[in-house]
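quick one before i forget lol
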Amino acid sequence: MAMPYSKSLDTFLDPYRNAIWETLDSNKYEYDHNNINACLNYDLVEAIERTSHVVKATTVAWGAGLCIYAARLMTAIGARRVVISENIPGKGNDVHKVLSIASLEYLDSWKRGQGVGQSTLQYIVRRSIEELGDLIQSRNENEIREIESKAMNMLKNLIGILPEALRRLGIDNKLYGDLRFYTEVEMVDYKLHIWGVPDLIIEHPRERKAIVIEWKSDEGSPKETEKYQAYIYAMLEAIRLGYGETFGDIVNAIAPDNINDTKVLPIIIRPNCAYSDHPLLPLACRQNPKPVSVEELRDRLRRVIITSTYLTLLLMDIDSLLYGVERRREEGVITTRERCAIKRSDRDVSPPYLLRMTP
């Protein structure tokens, strides 16, 4: 029997609540314990359940992996410019455009056991470039050759690690026929409150397992934001596969106690290497692979949900959402802003708003 939505959502808010309590306990704050309990167990849940706001995966990755203040700025700008084409995630540079087409044909050829050699790869990539036509912004012949070279190298790097990645997920070559490939699928989830577009998903629907590929067309070292972005897409894919009734389901799909029970594996592909710090299949570009521990991986997933919840709250006028613009002005109505008030005991300032506080 399916869990009620409100209880399911509650599990996604637990990491944020825990982070808020830790922040309160680690600083000199004065507050009414009963009010804060009501704030985090009623106002927060009601607001998150009612809102349709979502935050871009790339913004959440910045907040979780690098700088929450930069993510706050990106969220504010994105809220005003969400319809502008260059602000849509997944619509990247020319290499990404070529790979969105070429990867499907190349992987289908590989799945069927047909030729995947250099000549086949070059033919598929060149034909993809021709099909894109004017959508390729680069018109210089040298730039086109560079796009072709990068796309070919990235597809070769993918094919080079794909059989082993599938094997570790428990998918042998007898099951290849049921593999499905998807590029730039728009994914939105209202428990994570994240909107993202993974570059490539290699999925086995019957086994409910998948590899999520994030293309990076430069040859630099993986950044923390890129790692978080790949794991955010893995979380969205886990929900797509049916592992999202609770936040614990997502954790168990990506970072289970027995790492061999992993259901979704994120991998970053560059022109010079394939990278993953997931303990199921550690891959590195310039040094020996250094996988994170299962607990570190779980902490990464918790940071994602804490960041996405915080950034979603920044977009909301919670009092208007819960009480209405007029009713919140009525005498005797205790609003969220009043109930969630806290005060620094060492500062003579007006109480900050708990649900605006950076956890």
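fyi The longest helix spans residues 141-168.
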